[in-house]
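Re-running the complex after MR caught last week's input typo. The corrected sequence lines follow. Everything else is unchanged.
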Amino acid sequence: MNKTSQVIGRSVPRVDARDKLTGSANYAADLSFDGMLHLKVLRSDRPHAKILGIDTAAAKGHSGVVAVFTYLDIPGKNRLRNGLQIFCGDKVRYVGDPVALVAAETLESAQEALKLIKVEYEDLPGVFSPEAALLPDAPQVYDTGNVFMEKTLRKGNPEAALPEAAIVITNTYQTQVVEHAYMEPEAGIAQRDDDKVTVWMPSKYAHSSRKEIASVLGIPAEQVRIYNTAIGGSFGDRSSLAPGHYAALASFKTGRPAKLVYSREESFFASTKRHPFTIKYTTAAAADGRLCAVDIEITADVGAYNGSSPAVFGKSLVHGSGPYEIPHILLKIRGAYTNNPVSASMRGLGVPQVAFAHESQMNILAERLGLDPFEIRLRNALRPGSITATGQCLGSSVGLVETLQKVRDEIARRGTPENSPARRYGWGIASSFYGIGQPGRPVPGVARIEASSAGGFTLYVGCGDVGQGSNTILSQIAAEGLNCRMEDIRIISNDTDLCPDSGAAVASRVTYFVGRAVQIAAEKLKRLLQEAAASVIGSSPDDLQLQRGGFCVFSSPQKTVSIGQAVNRLAEEGRLPQAEGTFAPETVPLDENTSQGVPMATYAFATQAALVSVDMDSGEVELLSLVASHDVGKAINPYAVVGQIEGSVAMGLGFGLMEEIVLQSGSIKNPSFAEYYVPTSLDTPEIMTILVEETEESGPYGAKGIGEPALIPTAPAIINAIQTAAGVRPKTLPVTPEALWNLLHALP
Amino acid sequence: MAALIKISFTLNGAHREIWTRADRLLVDLLREDLGLTGTKKGCEQGECGACTVIMNGEAVLSCLMPAQKAEGAEILTVEGMADTKGLHVLQESFLKEGAVQCGYCTPGMLLSAKALLDKNPQPDSAEVARAISGNLCRCTGYASIIRAVKKAAEKKSNE
Amino acid sequence: MLAGGTDLIPQLRQGDKLADLLIDITGIKELQLIHEQEDWICIGAAVTHAAVAAHPLICKEVRALAEGCAHVGSPQIRNMATLAGNVINARPAADGAIPLTALAAEINIVSPAGARWVPIEDTYRGVGLSHIDPSCEIAKAVRFKKPGSRAMTGFFRMAKRKALTLPIINGAVYILWDQSFTKIEKARIALGPVADRPFHPKRAERLLENGDLTPELILEVARQAAEEASPRTNIVRGSDLYRKEMIRIYLARTLHSLRAG
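Corrected-run output:
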């Protein structure tokens, strides 16, 4: 790319921000239709029980109630492809498991009717940890057993390498159940017109939601239309079973519009969670700190159903050994069903959990060997040409070393505050990497751009903006390729009838996969219009260059053809003024037995440093500063990239210090923001971001991704900082004041 | 069943009279009865700030406010911030500083920020952070929002 | 009776309380005032936490109350919720009621039978249960004796997050010195949530009285107070052992800061 960028690399305002700022953006709960039914879901209040009978007669007879649905009323399939089900039939498997749906004229009637549904349960013993679930006589969540999946990654010969190592350290780490806690509670509204059902819902993958809902209703996918409403945060969720499914069912069956909104408490019970991991981590190194082998055992709580555990396990396998070149690796991950809430995709897909482990191990190793935490990472860091855990040879876009150097320089410049008797200070660092996209066989990014005779462009992508700014980024890429203003691009990303399936807003893939597809589509459209313009003006396409608004001849710039004229010429020729782009990089799915392969084409790298103060008497930790250096390939919109990093620092702070879903026999004891602590503005630190741009050749203008990479190093950096400051090392998250106090006062 | 009552108040600068259920909460009066869905529901328990509006100059939680308390009051919602001349200086600043991501907390944030600037035209970062400490955000980490509020304050003082 | 509604509205929604009629008392002018009356400071029942925390008289004369009120919930909650309501809601760790307890405050209750001043401590019946019956009684004001130039007050609080969070522990201290500032004439300590209501560690208070704020005495007082406190283990907020220890730590720190001040 030789010319100066028009919009790439500029922090243009977000294309959807104005509507959000004026209150005119429509989230699903903001919509209403005349004659609309109000829905409420009846959920199980116990973790494991047979359903002997569901008596809906009283509820059906209640004033204002139009219908009550159970599993018997599903026209199509009750079970989705992943394993989640619309209603329980034979048994309930977790507290919150959906049992029935009430449709009524008012919300009040629906709520009253809910209480009138009589479910006869026969309680079964429950199982509440994967370890317990894997015992031989454990209560069976499914007749087929409690083991959901076991996967292994093997590189080299770890069994031989481990005993030969100069130093071997083994520790066990534990992470907690985490809530997505997006600010918009789940909602969906549906309307049936003859044989077509339209659903307005926030979905990170509307085309998938369409297929799911169609399968539930037993109708072809073409008869379901999903409008993606404004999405109030996703962080991995908004992917599968949602109010939209229930609203579609109710509308389909009654012929009336139907709306379902979860209360926040219901959202806590109904939504999926981050998998808690127990990680037994063995690191073996030479005396000079070079890693020679790792042996990792991960046990994961899948919860009552499979939400998307394979994706989480896949990413955990690929990233479990950290951003380091290690010749011998053994990683086993196994997931067990329990009667706990469902674990599924949450920002980072298992990598925040494993990063806590590997970054703790690196620091422990460094201490033992008398090495500086930066030094040990520099000695082992992945570099261009390095071989990863899956045997992949990395390309040139590997900026880890630069992120380490930048962070090291910055914290050296800042220094550490003076300790006082009760308050100690310390910096801690952590590095990470994250593959862009889903491992193995990725869904391609697809984009279509149409030019209009008025000279503007419409960009169609089937990928809803979950708040990370994809609508803006993709518009920037289109505007750059078509040499036009942002205002000339209209993006439509929210209608399954109009938009191609571009894959999900997941695995930080949108900029890279869909952005590249947009870039390709723009190039193709430009060539198409250029040909048409050439035929209008009677010259060769190569004599023309694309200016803003049209084409002009190189040699005589006063000879111009507008976009509109080119479009009209295409129409005369019977050709559509549009082009499509598709992009999926070459990958090699992970081998069944060894998980060797080329799962993702490119990786983002990062190093973060956290400065904490520790109150040695109370165990309170304050995160004072955070320096974050991220290799994003190319920052298409720097403010958007920085925004993702700053937001994920808050999320990482929560993950490290204060967030935890507290479960007691499978029941959530803190289902509210009063007792589930999402960081507030007073908890977040001063943040400095340092962007590194190691161009990824296969990405749009060199870009990779940031959404999840942003989160991964934060909590590990905080924990390493706690160790520096306080001299103790927590191995369980979250590090609450009491948890740290216990460590500080532990009997020898 | 709750009786119907009439509430008269000033909403976004205009006098309004509306009949509603006696047990209505302000957030539902705004969203359901008046169709102003800019004010959001995040938790309905006063724990997230998404429903923040300004009442008689103070930032309050409309999800905990009986609608009848609005009688005779002056209420500002996000829909009342922009005027015929354009966006409010805070809205412009949020737009420019990249302080809007998913946007769900945004209306509440704007109103908490406006309530602050109306009382304290030149707040420092700590004061801004404190003013929005009752507004949860899961996307931005608050940093861009604090920058946006300070820039807006700067701009206002230059006008 | 409805004041701010920040406790009552969620209770009504949950079905924890029922009401056919709400009477909003916050519009009554005389309930909106903070004023001095002889040697009392009176705060009307409609006065919000925000108003208390910002009031020059309170900031100057009763730091602990200003701080307590400044820590209630969030800015929006402080704009709505009243100090009197904080007492009537009868939670053991209420950030407004805890300093009031240390100040030996009284609350004026008006019922069909007449008006009476009741020590705040006597209004608690149990967790969330008040002797004040909001279905037939109105609180008019709270009052406490102005601490004066020989008095010192302090407030402390510990929570897992810096806003919108109920405390792990909180507390307030009131100390009245003799003329020479060498001997403590009167001491009151209020702690929460270490009992079913704001709690006075009486033996700790007695230790302070007739003593001086030496480091040794502070240590002993804090240790004693923690021993008297009986918090319960809370699955979200923390264990009883830890909370007792935090009482000791934070009370000692507060007493030290008074000593330094």
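None of the earlier attempt is carried over here. Chain A has three domains: 17-24+443-583, 31-124+186-261, 273-439+590-744. The domain at 17-24+443-583 of chain A is CATH 3.30.365.10 (Aldehyde Oxidoreductase; domain 4).
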